Amino acid sequence: MKKAIAEISARHLHISPQHLAKLFGPNFKLKKQHKLSQPGEFASKQTLEIIGLKNKLEKVRIVGPVRKKTQIELSLTDCIFLGIRPVLRLSGDVKNSPGVILKGPKGKLKIREGVIIPKRHLHLPEKQAKSWGLKNKQKIKVSFKGPRAAILKEVMVRVGDYKTRVHLDTDEANAIGIKNNATVELSF
């Protein structure tokens, strides 16, 4: 049985250079608060307010570096709170997803699409994927032992320049009682 570390991903967003400039001012650069486990990624010191149809979420962390497209990753609970009809997607797939209003220190803007609930997934470096016989976008199962033991199906494999980590959102983690950096078993 193969094992991996599970990381719990709280609400956050990735931002495009254009949206960063509109919300924080021209030539603004994200400031690193701390590194994340995936190469090159970091939690920035910057946060935004996300305004939905019913409510707003304050101090939502921006994950750097900037990306081509702005993408807001929320839990189902967050989407219901905001009044957004959620879509479950792989990171990067924002086409025809809901939009929101983003508010920063220098203004606000309405984005037409970009809100997703990220599908649970396993990040794998290419060498490890090859040795385990796994392919990009293959679906596997993740099991967790504990008082609320569970088997999570439909976990998507993401092969690339990654560290081996399973990513779950806060709703999934809370439902099964798993903590950040817990060890999980993989079956495929």
TrEMBL record:
Matching PANTHER family: PHOSPHATE PROPANOYLTRANSFERASE
Listed Pfam families: PTAC
Protein name: Phosphate propanoyltransferase
EC number assigned by the record: 2.3.1.222
Organism of origin: Candidatus Komeilibacteria bacterium CG11_big_fil_rev_8_21_14_0_20_36_20
EC category name: transferase
Cofactor or coenzyme needed: Zn(2+)
UniProt entry tagged with the keyword Acyltransferase: yes
